[in-house]
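Build the 3D complex.
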Amino acid sequence: MTLMTIRQSIQKGLREALQNDPSVFLMGEDIGEYGGAYAITSGFLEEFGPERIKDTPISEATFIGAGIGAASVGLKPIVELMSMSFSLVAFDQIVNMAANLRYMSGGQISVPLIIRAPTGAGMQLGATHSQSFETWLSEVPGLKVITFSNPIDALGLLRSAVKDLNPIIIAEPAGLYGVQGDVPDKYYEIPIGSASVVKEGKDVTFVSYGHGIPILLDTQEELTKINIDAEIIDLRTLNPLDMLTINNSIEKTGRVVLLDTSRKLGGIMPEIVSRIQEQSVDFLDGPIVRVGSENTPWPYNRNLEESSLPNVNNVIESFREGYKI
Amino acid sequence: MSKDNLSKKELLKLQEKMILIREFEEACGENYAKGFIRGFLHLYIGEEAIAVGAISSLEKEDYVVTHYRDHGHALARGLSTESVMAELFGKSTGVSKGKGGSMHLFDVEKNFMGGHAIVGAQLPLALGIALACKYKKENNVVLVFFGDGAVSQGTFHETLNLASLWELPVLFFLENNLYGMGSHVENTRAEGRDIYSSADAYGIQAEIVDGMNVLEVLDITKKSLESIRNNSKPILIEAKTFRFSGHSMADPAKYRSKDELNYWLKKDPIKSFEKYLIGENICTKDELKKIKEKAINEIEKAVDFSIKSPEPSLEELKKDIYA
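Done.
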């Protein structure tokens, strides 16, 4: 085991990919000389050279598109977007091109492209830099969307993504790059499409991903004071969803709370509500409870931003109100 | 380029391909009217000299990327009339198994990388393929077609900038047919109808060519490809051309005057080349008649093949989404 941050585990995964596979190259804004806006690729340019660590101009649509083109003829580009909010500039390339190419070519073309992007609010970055559009991308057939909340999953999922032949979005919770954990030294992978039970419990199922997981860990600790033993599920993959893990947990606990740190309107959780309704509603003793951020643009002011983001109290109150506990 | 550089066989091959595309497109129109072909259908009639002149100059290993008016490019690249027609009919025997349709033709074996239907979106894709060619140290060139409409997209400018900055082997082929759907280029572009000058802003060499003259297109393309292979620097060619029919089958083209259409009809690339071939005593009218008959026959077979081909099974709906 080695203690490392999420940032270090991503660096480890990227370095491995570059060392093991000559078709892997990195591309993005300020990933070379500057070392990456979040310092993920710090030192990579010196280590791997400018052919494999490509700085790009501020042309998101075109360098994502170039990644698609390179992937379509056998390379494995790992492209960094400086913010998930900037994916909007490249949405046409990601959705119309990357996701659709395989289907509309009748299976002739694969696009083994990875797009990494920091996501989420909470850092006072204001309306244009705080959005979580991994939720929009999760509804696009042809894409896979993965995310994590600890360094073990970050590395294991990245390893799987590097091996995958499909376009993959990695939504990296921007506020969690410094989160530490013990990462196994022995090689392992985390399969795409599998949620994890972060903490087992018998009284209520909490579901979230990314920034929501630390909130749920604090929440469950608080709930032990009233003798509630919560189970926490980290989705880890938003598309395809692992409903089996969620349904099994609901069968055990009979209660469920879904937490989004993105805006409550839309997002991935309404889809999970719908599937629970179809698949495991009979096991529930009360309503499916949802907690999420306010439906407003993200404010700059700290108090305003904090009042929009869900916290431990919001989760506890919503849970207790929903299940009359 | 004069006839001296090409054999009779090569010259006739150019005319044969142009006629094949023309006949194919005529048949598409007919089968659209009959209801066999649905959706949006954009015909290439009038622009045949460009696809044939440019693509005939390529090596097998080079790549072609194009826009949604793609039948001509596909056939010039050697995709079979049967597999392309069947695609338009939505049949399982189509190049994309009937899942792509007219605007999304692909044949990876022939390095024909689409058929892209968002205006200008194919340019970054072509850039990335060229990046891969350079990365893998292959000496291949990516020939990417786009229209005057695409020039208004940000991706055009971004791609030119990056192709120049990274010195990538891209041949940008602009088919300036003067109209982006119904909008004349002079109403959409501050700099007016000549577009090639845009390339200068990105340090890219630009050429202008009569897109109705197959030999001139062939000549400039060959020279450009040679230069790109030697210097790995992109080049942009602007071809002046015109589509003889509307933007799509839904378009009666009321925005164009009869005079304008007639002006361009006189430049018909197939008729002019026929005049040239006969005037220069390269072949007889009879030989050309036979070429046309052969093309008509081939297209009839392709239509027949498409009619008889099976529909895709319903299981296909959920296949080819993920690798």
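Residues 196-323 of chain A form a domain with the Rossmann fold fold (CATH 3.40.50.920).
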